[in-house]
Amino acid sequence: MSDLSVANTATSKAFDVKAIRQDFPILSQQVNGKPLVYLDNGASAQKPIAVLDAMDHYYREMHSNVHRGAHTLGDRATAAFEGARETVRSFLNARSTQEIIWTRGTTEAINLVANGLAPRLKAGDEILVSHMEHHANIVPWQMIAERTGAKVVPIQITPQGELDMESFNSLLNDRTRVLAITHASNVLGTINPVAEMVSQAKARGIITLLDGAQAVPHFQPDVQALDCDFYAFSSHKLFGPTGIGVLYGKTAMLEAMPPYQGGGEMIERVSFERTTWNVLPYKFEAGTPAIAEAVGLGAAIRYLNSFDREAMEAAEHALLERANQLVETVPGMTIIGTAKQKVPVMSFKIEGLHPSDIGTLLDQQGIAIRTGHHCAMPLMDFYGVPGTARASFAFYNTLDEVDQLFTALQKVQRLFT
Amino acid sequence: MAATEQDFLDNPLGKSTTLEDVLDGFEFLDDWEDRYAFIIDLGKQLPAFPDDARTEENYVHGCQSQVWLISYYDEASDKLYLLIDSDAMIVRGLAAMILVALNGKSPRDLLATDIDELFERLDLFRHISPTRGNGLRAMVGKIRDIAAAKTAG
C-alpha cells in the first residue's frame, strides 16, 4: 500500500494554534502591507501543507487514470483514490464506501439528488426546504419542481435565525416528499436540530437531504446517527482542494436513482441495443474523476483527525464568544443570527454603513471577510438588508485576530463619521 | 419626485468641483485612510437622486452594491448631464470622481476623454479590488453608451 492510504494517527496532537498556523503557509503573508487576517473561511478555507504535499506527491509519484490501467501507476492511483473514499466513509461513519459518491462539490451533490428524485415527483408533491438555505439548496429543487409540477415550500425562521419548529411541524403533510435543509447556516451560523427533523420526516416516509457544507469544517457528522438519506459537503471548505465534494447516500436510495450523467466509468456494458450501469458508487461517477483532489481531501480529513476535535471546537467557540463580547465596542453594530447553537460564523451590520464599504476598508487593513447576499437572497429579504458583512472563523484563527477585526471595525466607523 | 432639468444643472461635480480640484486633493495622499476619507467626502457631494428613477432601466449591473444612473441631454448647448446614486458610500465617492471627469461635457468630448488614464493617474486601481474595478468600468460603460447614442443620433 502507498503511504497515502488510510492510516489513523494513533495519538492526537495537543491544540496549539501557533503551531497549527505553521501548517498553513498562506496565512503568513502580508496583504496591503498588513499581516493577513483571514476570516472568510465560510466561503473557502485554507489548505494545510499536508494537503499540498499529498497532491504534489500524487502527481509526482503515482498519477495515472484510476480503475483501468493494467500497470503499476494505475494501481497506485486507484489505491490512493479509493483510500480517500474510505477516509471519507470513516469521517461520516457511513456503512460502506459504496455510499460515498465523489461530486464537484455540495452544489453538484444536491443537483444529483434533485435530478435523481425527479422521476418520483409529481404535480402537487412538496419539497420542504427552509428560509435560511443557500441558493444551492433552493434552486436545484426549483428546477425539478418546474419539471415535475412539485412545489418548493420554505420552513420559516425566527428573528434569532433559528428554524421555526412550529412552522416545520405545520408544513409536514401527506404531500411532502423531500426534506432538504442545511445542517449549519452559511449566513447565520445556526446549527439546525436536524436529527430530530429527520426522525420526524422518516416517520412519514419523507426522503431527507442535509447540506453539510458549513457543518463539517466545525464538527464531524455521523450519518448513521442522523439517519438522513443524503448528506452533502464540499472539500474546499473542509481545508481540502477545490473541485471535489461528497454525496453520501444510503445504498437503497442510490440504487433506486437513475444515473446523473452518462459516460465512461459509470457503465457496466455499453451497446447500441442496451447499456447497463456500473455498481455503486461508480454509477454516479461518469468520466475521469478529480483524482488528485480526492487524494487531497483525504489528506485534509486525516490532518483534522490528527487533532483532538473537541479541543478544536472549544477553541473555535472561544473565537465566536470573544467576537460576541466585542460587538458593543462598535456602536451601531448588530449581529444577524443569534441562535443558541452556532458554528463560528458572525454576520453583522453596522448602522449607516453598506456591507461593501465595510469589506473594502477591512481589506485595506489586511482583513478578509465576505460581504453581500451570501447566495441566500431569501434570507436577506427576511432581515430586510441588501447584504451582510460576515466574518467566519476556522480553528487556525486566533483571539488576537478577533481583536484586530474589532479594532479595524472601529477605524472603519471613524472614517465614515 | 421626478428629476428636473435643474437637478441636473445643479450637480456641482464637474462644475464647481473640477477635475483639477480632485487631482490636487487626491494625488498626493499616500495613506489609505486619507485616500478613502477623501473618496467618501467627495461622495457626499452627489446631489439627491429622484426616488422614481431607481428603476431597472437605470440600474447599473456589475456592481457589488446598487447603482443607478440617469442622464439629461441639453440640445441647445450640446451638453450631457448625469446623476448617479448608490447605497454604498465608497461607490458614491467613485461615482463622484467619474462625474467630475465626465459630467456636463458634450457627448463628443465625453467619448474623447480617456477615463482609464485618469484612474491610473489617481492610482485608483491599486487601492480598489478587481470586483470594484469592474463596477467602475460598468458605470463608465453605461455613460459612454449614452453619449455614443447622442452622437449617433
Q: Assembly state here?
A: heterodimer
β-strand percent of chain B reads 5-15%
Poorly predicted runs of 5 or more residues of chain A: 1-10
Please give the radius of gyration of chain B in angstroms. Answer: 15 Å
The whole-angstrom Rg of chain A is 22 Å
Strand content of chain A: 15-25%
- How confident is the prediction overall: mean pLDDT of chain A? 95
**Individual helix count of chain B:** 7
Number of spatially distinct domains of chain B:
1
Count of separate structural domains of chain A: 2
Would you identify the CATH architecture of chain B? Alpha-Beta Complex
Which strand order do you get reading across the main beta sheet of chain B?
Answer: 1-2
Q: Which key features would you list for this structure?
A:
heterodimer, A: 417 residues, alpha/beta, Aspartate Aminotransferase, domain 1, Aspartate Aminotransferase, domain 2, 2 domains, 7-stranded mixed β-sheet, 4-stranded antiparallel β-sheet, 14 helices, 38% helix, B: 153 residues, mainly alpha, Sufe protein. Chain: A, two-stranded antiparallel ribbon, 7 helices, 2 strands, 10% strand, globular
What features would you describe in this structure?
The complex is a heterodimer of chains A (417) and B (153). Chain A is of the alpha/beta class and 417 residues long. Chain A has helices at 17-22, 49-62, 72-92, 106-117, 139-148, 165-171, 194-203, 223-226, 251-256, 291-305, 309-326, 355-363, 377-383, 399-416, and strands at residues 30-31, 34-35, 37-38, 100-103, 126-130, 151-155, 176-182, 207-211, 230-234, 245-249, 267-269, 276-277, 333-336, 345-350, 367-368, 370-372, 388-392. Chain B has a single domain, classed as Alpha-Beta Complex (Sufe protein. Chain: A). Helix content of chain B is 50%, strand content 10%. Chain B is built from 7 helices and 2 strands, in the order H-H-H-E-E-H-H-H-H. Chain B has a two-stranded antiparallel ribbon with strand order 1-2. In chain B, a hairpin with a 4-residue loop joins strand 1 and strand 2. Chain B is globular and about 45 Å long. The mean pLDDT of chain B is 87.
